[in-house]
């Protein structure tokens, strides 16, 4: 476990008591996007320094460059390159997912 000194500023009144010396768990939100297309990060592949996905065209899989947005440890926002409903495949298994 790593410890970092922080300065805490509360903008809203909290219920309960804040005690000195007690540890806490919190998330730091550095960005937020709502109602945007996302994919699990394991679908993203880098090919010749270009990030993209394997799109299922119905007859074959094609590598499509994409522009990524915000991400966390599980999902990444797709800003350009795919449309909602496009089917993509995992790079390692080539398993198609709508």
Write the layout of secondary structure elements.
Blueprint: E1 38-40, E2 45-47, E3 50-56, E4 61-65, E5 67-71, E6 75-80, E7 88-89, E8 96-97
3D structure, described in words:
With 98 residues, the protein is mainly β. It is built from no helices and 8 strands. The chain is 0% helix and 34% strand. Strands 2, 3, 4, 7 and 8 form a 5-stranded antiparallel β-sheet that branches. A 3-stranded antiparallel β-sheet has the order 1-6-5, with no helix packed on it. The protein is elongated and about 60 Å long. The model has no long low-confidence stretch (mean pLDDT 84).
| Helix count, DSSP H or I runs of 4 or more residues | 0
**Strand composition percent:** 25-35%
Low-confidence stretches: none
Q: Percent range for helical residues?
A: under 10%
Features:
0% helix; mainly beta; 34% strand; 98 residues; 5-stranded antiparallel β-sheet; 8 strands
Report a brief summary of the structure:
With 98 residues, the protein is mainly beta. It is 0% helix and 34% strand.
């Amino acid at each position: 476990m790593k410890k970092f000194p922080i300065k805490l500023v509360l903008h809203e009144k909290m219920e309960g008591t804040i005690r000195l010396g007690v540890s806490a768990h919190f998330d730091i939100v550095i960005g937020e996007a709502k109602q945007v297309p996302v994919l699990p990060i394991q679908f993203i592949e880098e090919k010749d320094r270009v990030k993209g996905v394997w799109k299922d065209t119905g007859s074959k899989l094609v590598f499509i460059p994409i522009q990524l947005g915000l991400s966390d440890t599980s999902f990444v926002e797709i800003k350009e390159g795919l449309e909602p409903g496009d089917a993509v495949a995992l790079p390692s298994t080539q398993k198609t997912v709508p």
